[in-house]
Amino acid sequence: MKAGVKTAKAAAGRKVAPKRAAARHAASRHVGDVMTSNPVCATTGSSLRDVARQLDEYEVSGLPVIDDQDRLVGVVSRTDLLRRLLEGPAGARRDEEWLDLLTADSASRVDVDAARLGVVDDVMTVVPVTAKAEENLTTVARRMAEERVHRVVVVDAQRRAIGIVTTLDLLKVFPG
Fold first, then answer.
1. Where are the domains of the chain?
2. Which tens digit of pLDDT belongs to each residue from 98-142?
3. What is the pLDDT of residue 20?
4. Does 3.40.50.720 match the CATH number of domain 30-173?
């Protein structure tokens, strides 16, 4: 029996060592190593319907929002869109059912009501959490946790969106 216990302890010791090595490896990696380059972006003034289409088409949960000079000005998520559908635009009557847009059977009604919902500028987060490609992953992971965000936009010196890092990207790198 003692031999079995020593073997179990030894095996447990071998399992811990790779995790520590992986943690050290993750700590030495940079954002540029794991980011998704050339992210799909929404542009200021885009309709919420167009943003919803982009989110669906590219199967992402959020998009950087850029201005006409390709500079990052915000981030919009599926949650932002859902919140707008639940609450309606500013000044909406309480009895209006904006969530019905999801199941409306009249395309013309959807177009009119969707236009009343506003544009991406109305629902985006205007101070997005960002990172530089050369930043340490551990630092950025801590920032994401502190800010309670699921994605950071990687920007260059001119504040152009050059990549995205999500919590899922980080979980692939850090040991579980």
1. 30-173
2. 445 544 454 544 444 556 678 999 999 999 999 999 999 999 999
3. 45
4. no
